[in-house]
Amino acid sequence: MRILAIESSCDETAVAIVEDGRRILTDCIASQVALHREYGGVVPEIASRKHIEAIYGLAEQALENTGLTRGELDAVAVTYAPGLIGALLVGVNFAKAAALALDVPLIPVHHIKGHIAANYLAYPDLEPPFLCLVVSGGHTMFVDVEDYTKLRILGGTRDDAAGECFDKVARLLGMPYPGGAALDRAAQGGDPSRYPMPRPHLSGNPLDLSFSGLKTSAVNLIHNAGQKGEQIVIPDLCAAFSEAVCGMLVPRAMLALEQTGRKTLAVAGGVAANSRIRAALQRETAARGVRLCMPPLSLCGDNGAMIGAQAYYEYLAGNIADQTLNAYATRSMEGEAL
Ligand code: ATP
Ligand code: MG
Ligand code: FE
């Protein structure tokens, strides 16, 4: 089954064609990052307009890359939630029109389920159940993937997402948006012990976490140094911050493995590209005999292929939409209703 998959939830317009949920035939992405950079973050209105400009050409390019004709597409899938509402609506409307014109099923896909499904592309033998650490620009959570379409959130951040914090700290250090990857690079060789960072403990669910205190503490440190005219040792601060995020995520991922008894840990989302987090996960899972799945960096950030992968399993589960499909800025992936 060949699925044309559309993703436009944030600042990447992406169109892919994926076969049977596992094989990428083409994965076309038009990133708007450079445009938003001058504002230090994504400007929703600009994002929507750029999606409109890019989407049709990308779909044409996807067909050209694969040599497929329109008649050889079996379904159209689209990210319908969560994300920037105007941006999502561009993809949803394009997908509705395409499904209608091609007379094929329309498959709505939750963006975070898509991030998790990137693992099916990277590891063709991977099947649920498994545990997934989702760390992206807007989400940080531990998810028990009981089945392809049945996912349970075990815990996660109560305030900011890990990616947001990386971007905020990077921005204050003068790195261009989105600064997560630049901060990661700057941390290489840094001494994480120079700047002590708080590790907040929350009452209640031990798998819940909070990043706002850590973020504020890094922000204050930078501001105070600025006021006193002191130089921040950037590699050391980046290493300390990355280490603190890592120290919050990795032990909880191990706890989630213990709680669920799962023997496989997958990671998903843009922050899963972080080198320190990847190294720590490798170390800790190896020590426990747990299989670790980490998609290549190209599949960690937003892309269309991950939407096509999840769409296949949504289709098999009968989760098809009609022309009344809408987009939603927020929507849980647990027990979602269209
Ligand atoms: P969501 O998926 O929650 O809706 P999003 O789609 O904006 O949010 P992604 O595209 O999955 O998020 O990830 C982007 C985030 O990943 C950004 O915050 C970016 O800084 C961060 N990121 C990318 N590479 C790295 C890295 N090496 N280290 C830390 N953060 C990184
Ligand atoms: Mg993005
Ligand atoms: Fe994303």
TrEMBL record:
Similarity annotation: Belongs to the KAE1 / TsaD family.
GO MF term (any one): tRNA N(6)-L-threonylcarbamoyladenine synthase activity
Catalysed reactions, semicolon-separated: L-threonylcarbamoyladenylate + adenosine(37) in tRNA = N(6)-L-threonylcarbamoyladenosine(37) in tRNA + AMP + H(+)
NCBIfam families to which the protein is assigned, alphabetical: gcp_kae1 (TIGR00329), T6A_TsaD_YgjD (TIGR03723)
Any Pfam family matching the protein: TsaD
Alphabetically ordered keywords of this record: Acyltransferase, Cytoplasm, Iron, Metal-binding, Transferase, tRNA processing
Main localization, broad class: cytoplasm
Cofactor notes: Binds 1 Fe(2+) ion per subunit.
Protein's organism: Faecousia intestinalis
Presence of the UniProt keyword Iron in the record: yes
Domain of life of the native organism: Bacteria
EC number: 2.3.1.234
Protein name: tRNA N6-adenosine threonylcarbamoyltransferase
